[in-house]
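Contributing: when you submit paired examples, paste them exactly as shown. First protein:
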Amino acid sequence: MDLWARLWQSRPVPAAQFRVIVERNTALTGGYFQLDLEAPVSTPIAETRAGQFVMLRGEWGRDLLNGRAFSVLDVRDDRHFSVLAKVFGRGTALLSEAEAGTPLTCTGPLGTGFPEPEGDELSLLVAGGVGLPPLHLYARRAAEAGAAKDVVLFYGGRSEADIVLTEAIESAGVELVVATEDGSRGHKGFVTVPLLERLRAAKAEGRALRMLSCGPTPMLQAVRKLALELGVPAHLCLEEQMGCGFGVCLGCAVPVYGELPYKYCCTDGPVFDAREVRWS
């Protein structure tokens, strides 16, 4: 069996496709916006793990054939959930203009989520830009389970305008460390600087550690480098462009170590063990 046949046979079937309407569209700073979505009937969305995503598509006709992938930000129940987005292209621009009552098609939840914590290990969450949602969801769920003290969220952006939705994290009792490149909020510089300080302090204390991260690729590469150098387990939620979301287009190949040279972000990920990703 050739390589492509083996890859194709490993593609799982998507979870579900269902209709939703926009309940609220809230504009945030920095071009970000939050879509609160409502399904008319029960869906599998309540089973979403932090790190999984959905594909959303409006009634766009032939103008845009494919949906757009978004990590799930919040899940209220099996009919209500939210995503965070930023305007990057035509699809996100159309979604940013969607009014309450706008119908969308949703496919999900898709992909793999972050692993559950083990014992009393300290989870250091590292978010950047639109990589916030899966870690925002993870942190709040940890707090709801009484484990807020075992989680620290490091959140980086270019400026204060890129730091959004922090109120829910702070009110949940989760420690939040903010860094901005221009120093307009929190530490000045990259978020990996305060992260490294905390990593060294926790290791000196003998604390069991792990890192979970989602954000732009340069940030993920820096997190991976720290994890490998310090021997800290880490999982990365990658931000690859996904055309279909369930392994048909084969457009989101990720170079990995192992028997096969590539895996696919939409089905094998988007969460990968940091040791597995083969970045040059």
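Second protein:
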Amino acid sequence: MEEEWIAGKHSVIEALKSGRTINKIWLAEQAQKHLVQPIIAEAKKAGVIVQQADKRKLDQMVPGIQHQGVVAQAAPYAYAEVEDLLAAAAAKGQAPFLILLDEIEDPHNLGSILRTADCTGAHGVIVPKRRSASITATVSKTSAGAVEYVPVARVSNLGQTIDRLKEAGIWVVGTDVEATEPVFGNNVFTGPVAVVIGNENKGMGRLIREKCDVLVKLPMEGRINSLNASVAAGVVMYEVLRGRLAGS
């Protein structure tokens, strides 16, 4: 069976709390006790083996990731279906709030978006199977464990998925620097909504842009006319939350 790595204190502890299958946890011998004690306690409750190892071994397991002296070997991440995301909204008695990522390629951006999606109450994130970052140890670490709570659906065709969402009565809002309508104070966010965030460099693809019901932009007052994709996504997600709280 394939296995995946999870690295970092928050990522590992949230994976344990969420009930994800963890096969084994390694703690660096040099790790501070007060940092790893909560992980040891959660692992004991879950019946997961915890082993000490030299920090260099952990470095080799997850090269290039700041693991904080904590690495876990877990079952592969289970992607959701789009229907699961809609069912999650229905179960809470809420209008669907989804995030669609049109070829977000940087795993750090995906992780940051998942973290904000959890904080703002989004019911899930949808990514295309091709030309898009997938759930990795880097994404998990950047999300601070939010990857365990925000369902992610991978779809073969984002355009067809948008058509399905529109048929289900969901308003599709694209973010585009060329849009004329500002993101702030927009009443489209109070009902069922799917927010589309484009690629870090190219923005949304032409076909995806054309399928959006409305395009909104973030006002730019400085000399640099763009924001990091995850920052832009965060601003829009909080605008959705603000609108929903104001309307509740």
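If you have annotations for the second protein, write them as plain sentences, like these:
The chain has nine helices and eleven strands.
Residues 106 and 164 are 27 Å apart (CA to CA).
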